[in-house]
Specification:
alpha/beta; 10 helices; TIM Barrel; 7-stranded parallel β-sheet; single chain
Length: 297
């Protein structure tokens, strides 16, 4: 698959890292509930290799997925890594034996997390590390993150991290972090129905900073919309391909990391880059978020 077929290219600001706009999110490579080994270990390896063979060079992961399993599968499938592959990981969480999701934000937690990622990915340095703020849900909460970003900046100076990003953050937290370190990307919850970050995306575009939506297809609750279904039928494609194509059209600094453990779904996700949405279709889709907001009130 050609580079153009993956949504075009984006270079993270102040770096030499250039990626295709459709990447791959590795969370679903772990077992059910993002815990333990996958049901089909060979299938997980095959999906990763197929993604890279198709031109994907941006993989998003975290060592607390599994825990450790996802990074170990990435290493098994792809190491030694091909030139130009950018692996983005995240810190700030841990998975205790009760399978819950807990913060891991002390200096020791963050330092240990970097070394866990390096060991399980078999790397000497991490391309990009996102500090993931672990709120009570999947949305950000206002609180200072200066201490954690300072730790990452120190690990960057030591050469263990090349670049720093943020995940699940507010604009105020981004502003605070940028007084401490250069931030190359923001990874927040955003999709057709969840558009709280519209202004932030536009501001980041002005700064040349990447915006990477997590849950681009709705996450644990897949997007459901009669409009989305209708548009997909009109275009003879799938609702999920429409949702991904809308994100690519939304702003050129948006990078996609849809995850799947299925080769069929992988190919469908990558094919979304071929889908051009006419202006009237984009207008229809833009109304989904308004309808979702009205339904909550």
């Amino acid at each position: 698959m050609s580079e153009a077929a993956l949504g075009g290219r984006f270079t993270f600001p102040g770096t030499s890292l250039t990626v295709q706009r459709i990447g791959y999110g590795a969370m679903q490579l772990a077992g059910p509930g993002v815990w333990g080994p996958p049901k089909d270990a060979e299938g997980a390896v095959a999906v990763l290799r197929a993604a890279v063979a198709a031109g994907v060079n941006h993989i998003d992961t975290a060592d607390y997925y599994g825990p450790h399993r996802t990074n170990q599968i990435i290493r098994q499938a792809l190491h030694p890594y091909p030139p130009g592959l950018v692996i983005v990981t995240k810190l700030g969480g841990r998975r205790p034996p009760d399978k819950s999701w807990q913060p891991a934000i002390s200096p020791q937690d963050l330092t240990d997390g970097v070394h866990d990622n390096l060991r399980n990915l078999s790397l000497d340095a991490l391309d990009i590390v996102n500090y993931r703020v672990m709120g009570s849900g999947h949305g950000p909460e206002e609180a200072s993150i200066a201490g954690q970003v300072t730790v990452l900046a120190d690990l960057q100076r030591k050469g263990l991290i090349r670049h720093i990003g943020l995940s699940n953050v507010t604009p105020a937290q981004l502003t605070e972090a940028r007084t401490i370190a250069d931030i190359v990307c923001v990874q927040n919850n955003y999709n057709l129905a969840h558009r709280h970050d519209d202004a932030l995306i536009d501001a980041l575009l002005h700064e040349g900073i990447a915006y990477v939506p997590f849950f681009p297809l709705g996450g644990f609750t897949p997007l459901q919309s009669s409009t989305l279904t209708s548009v997909a039928a009109q275009l003879a494609t799938t609702p999920m391909q429409v949702a991904l194509a809308w994100l690519l059209a939304r702003s050129p600094n948006i990078l996609l990391i849809p995850g799947t453990s299925s080769l069929t779904h992988l190919r469908e996700n990558l094919a979304a880059a071929h889908l051009t949405l006419p202006p009237q279709t984009l207008a229809q889709l833009d109304r989904i978020a308004h309808a979702a907001t009205q339904a909550k009130h």
